[in-house]
């Protein structure tokens, strides 16, 4: 049996090593944790030390060194509980280890009571407070939160209470962000702490702070896959797309066959306006990705964005052979719509709707009804979607489209003018339906409205020119074709650029006047 001085020294070593062990624990890095424990494993009391660490490791399934041997976690806790009986009962460490043994046996009530009694004997003891807060976390989150706050006041130089307060999912976001920042500052030399805090800050939307912490983690830990991945996400969320792209590309060098990285590179290239490079990476993604992989819907979205409807239909069907989900059914419906089979599109959207209460599927059903020439049914579905989620953009657009089809133009104009949300497609959608109805002047006016409220793109500009051409307004059509040609070249769409060039050249020719017709 060790003397009290040895046990006090043991408690001191717990206080100095706990934060580093915690960093390894949350990163699930068992080997570094074992190495750190090994450096202190010189006395029999290390069983108690490791038992306390096990509680902090949150049940990671690994074997830990005890007196230079490995024991399964359950056996480890049993030995620790037995060892705790030989420690002096008045020591906080002994009470903490006994509580750990009770919790491991499933008696949380007794474990919490023991910790509470220990804190009455040893007020503001770090080990007992930490133990009790962990036990309260799943039973009474509010009580755990109060304990973390109190520990932050009692132990302002310890990182772990601040980190645990920052992890509290039910806490105030501003308080959580502040706590994580403080935890990261206190553990500024530990790369794993920077990584963990940076990741949590990103999840809370503190993108700038997340980038700072994750960049420090990269400096201290090196360019590991997990660090690069989270850093790229934070950079993209902060708006630094070029830095995010550079990080994705660095990660792609490490793992060239990971399809989700290729998808992330392609998406970021598209957001930077490098559409040709994005399409090249999507083609590579198509070669290496399986239809059942998690990120495959992002590829389906790319196919839809670029009007590759036949490919979208084939890939959607291939994915549906492996598993049925609402999003894939949605893309199948969009493919059928693009290919002109609106009845098949409606069937796919209805099947997606039957699998989920998602309001977006109701919006798409309204869209298919409009395409089928059933504006009254579309109007009812759009109103249903707006009941499920007021002021949703697509439902507003489909309701306006139905009103235009019913020739209630004034009501449709007022509906679109009163909408204050994103206008990415609303006017364009109505314009396409009016063009199909051969109401070219109204369609041209709606395309012009779309070009005023969103950045100009080649396809929308070209369609606006088509409507002016069909409305016999040649001069305006020629000007728009010229604009569309330049936009298409900038977007890397040479086929559309050539078409617009030919239309501009044809419409710009001066007509000859013949007196006899």
TrEMBL record:
UniProt-listed InterPro entries: TPR-like_helical_dom_sf, TPR_rpt
GO BP field: cell division; protein ubiquitination
Transmembrane segments: none
Lineage top rank: taxon: Bacteria
Organism field: Pseudomarimonas arenosa
Name of this protein: Tetratricopeptide repeat protein
